[in-house]
Amino acid sequence: MNSTDITRRLACFVVRSEPEDIPDAVQHEACRAILNWLGCAIGGAGHDTVRFAAQALQPFFGPAQAQVLGRPERADILHAALLNGIASHVLDFDDTHLRAIHPSAPVLPALLALAEWRGLSGRDLVHAFVLGVEVEERVGLSVFPEHYDRGYHITGTAGVFGAAAAAGKLLGLDEQRMTWALGIAATQSAGLREMFGSMCKSLHPGKAAQNGLSAALMAERGFTSAAAAIEGKRGFAHVLSTRFDPAVITDGLGEGWELSRNMYKPFACGLVVHAAITGCLELREAHGLRGPEIAVIAARVNPLVPELTGKPEPRTGLESKFSIFHAMAIAILDGAAGEAQFSAEAANRPAAVALRRRVEITADPTIGKLESHVRIELTDGRVLERHVPHALGTLERPMSDRDLEAKFRGLCAERFAEDRIAAMIEACWSIRAAADAGALARLAAG
C-alpha cells in the first residue's frame, strides 16, 4: 500500500475501526446530530418537495422494509433512504460542518433504513455514523473550496462516500468490498449548486443516501469498481477538481473526528445568513423595532453571502431561504426565523416585500463567513449598529442539548403529540444502548 493508495487506505480505516476507538464526547455529538436530523426529517415530511417525490415514486416501492419518517408510508430501504434524505434537508435546517458539508442528511437516512431492515443495534449505528461523517468530510475537504466554487454541491458529491462507508460498516464489508463500495459511490457522485432555491437541492443528499446505500449493498454481493476511485487520474478528485490534496484524507486519520466540528442551525436557512439574522433580532429586541420605523437595513458580510443568498425578490419558500434580503426583513417583522418565516406566504407578505427592498448588502472580504455588521437607519434619523462576530449555532455560540430538544419539539409539534415527541427525544439520547436502532424510525411513523 503506497502513499497514493487513498481509496484503499480509507476503506481499511473504516473496516478496522472499533466502537471503542470513538471518544465518548464524539459519540454524544452523534446523538445530538441524530436528534437534530430526525427533527428536520419529520419537520420536512409534509413539504411539497417530499410529497411530490413520494407520489411519483410510491408505485415503485418494494417491500415495506423501512419507515418514511413523519409519514404513513413504509418502503424498501432504497426509497426510504431517498425520501428521508430529501425531507431532512428540504427545510435547510439540518446540521452543517465547519466548512461546507451538511453531514447527516446523506448518511443517516441510509443507516437508519438499513438498521431497521436488518435489526441492527444503536451502538453499531452510532459507530458507523461517526465513520461515515469522517469519510465524507475528508473526501469533500480534499477538493474544497475549488470543487464547491466550480458549482458542485459538496453535500451531494461528498455525501455519497459517507453513506457508502457507513452502510458498508453496518454490513460488515471487508477491505476489498469496502474499497469497491467507495468506488461505486464515486461514480455516482453528483449535485449542482445551480439547483439552490429549487426542490433539487434537497434531492442531492437524498440521492447520496440512496446511492451510497446501494453501493454498499452491491459491493457486499461482489460488484466491483476501480481500485483508485478517488485519487486515480480519472477518478473523483481529479475529474471534479484541479486542486486535490490527498493529505487531507489521510493525515491524522483516526486521531481527530470531524463530527466534533458539527454545527446546528437555530434558523431555517443557510448558516452564512445566521449572523445577519442574529444582529437583526438583537437590535429588534433592544430597541422594540417592528419595521415601519426603519428607513434602511444595511449589512456588511463576506462575499460568499450574497453569492449564495443574493435573491432579492424570492417568490417561494425555498427561494426565500437563499435571500439575505428576506431573512433580515422577516427577522425584524416576526422576531423569529423558523420554518414559518421561510414559507411562500411569508415570502409574499406585503410587509416583508416592502421591508426587504430597504435592505442593502455590502460584500466585504475582511468579514468572516459567519460574521456580520448590521446597521439600521431609522426614519427619525437615529442609527443603530450591531457587530455579530459569531452567529448563533456556530462552534463559538453552540446550541445546547436543551436547545436542540426545543428545536425538535417545534419541528414535530404539528405531526405528533407531546408524549410521542418525548419518547423520540429519549430514544435519540439513549440510542447507543438500543438493541434495535430501527425502533427509532418506527416511533417516527406519521
Automatic annotation (TrEMBL):
* SUPFAM superfamilies given in the database record: 2-methylcitrate dehydratase PrpD
Segments forming domain MmgE/PrpD C-terminal: 267-430
Domain MmgE/PrpD N-terminal: start-end pairs: 8-246
User: Could you tell me which Pfam families the record lists for this protein?
Assistant: MmgE_PrpD_C (PF19305), MmgE_PrpD_N (PF03972)
Identify the domain of life: Bacteria
- Name the PANTHER family on file: 2-METHYLCITRATE DEHYDRATASE (PTHR16943:SF8), 2-METHYLCITRATE DEHYDRATASE-RELATED (PTHR16943)
Positions the record marks as coiled coil are none
| InterPro entries named among the record's database cross-references | MmgE/PrpD_sf, MmgE/PrpD_sf_1, MmgE/PrpD_sf_2, MmgE_PrpD, MmgE_PrpD_C, MmgE_PrpD_N
Q: Which family does it belong to?
A: Belongs to the PrpD family.
Protein name as it appears in the record: MmgE/PrpD family protein
